[in-house]
Each structure stands twice: as C-alpha cells, then as structure tokens.
Amino acid sequence: MQIELDSRDRTILRILQKDGRITNSDLAEKVHLSPSACLRRVRQLEESGLIRGYVMMLDERIAGFPGTAFVFVTLDQQGPRLAGELREGRAGPARDPRMPSARRRA
Considering the entire predicted model, what is its pTM? Predict the structure, then answer.
C-alpha cells in the first residue's frame, strides 16, 4: 500500500527517526504545526502502519554485551519435552542472562 506523504510528514518521520522520545509540543514546534495538528498527523502515520513502533537503542558495550555472535546448534534428539523447554526459555541459550535473545529455526 502506497501512502501519500507531504513535506511535513517526511519531516515528522525524519525527526522521529532521530528522537522517538521527542514531546509532541517540541515536534509540533519543529514542523510549524499546532500540537493538535501534529499529533493528528503522527497518529495517522501510526495507524497507516508507516510507523510500526518506537524502540530503545541499547549500548551493548556499556551493558556488557561486547559483540554479536550467531551460533548454530544441532541436537542429537528432539523430543517434545526438550522442544517445550527450549520454546519456554527453560533450556538452552535463552537461560544465559548474557544472551538477550535466541531464535529457533526449523
């Protein structure tokens, strides 16, 4: 689905990409809109799906996660008990607090 964006919408998106925590009043001031008009545009961008969400960026070095590793593990056996434990994070790499995420591939 193609969404029609004008220059203000593009400016709003550019500002939100740099600072997703900016207040609506500060954003409105930067794009020369009233706070209510700015909020209406942001909500339309969210509802259209163009803005899917807002995230926090973790400084991995400060958090003690000095790098990224992709590890592939092959299992000898795959019983229902082990599969359930892996899925629920009770077994495997998800139990390690130094590992913020783990994915399972079929």
Answer: 0.60
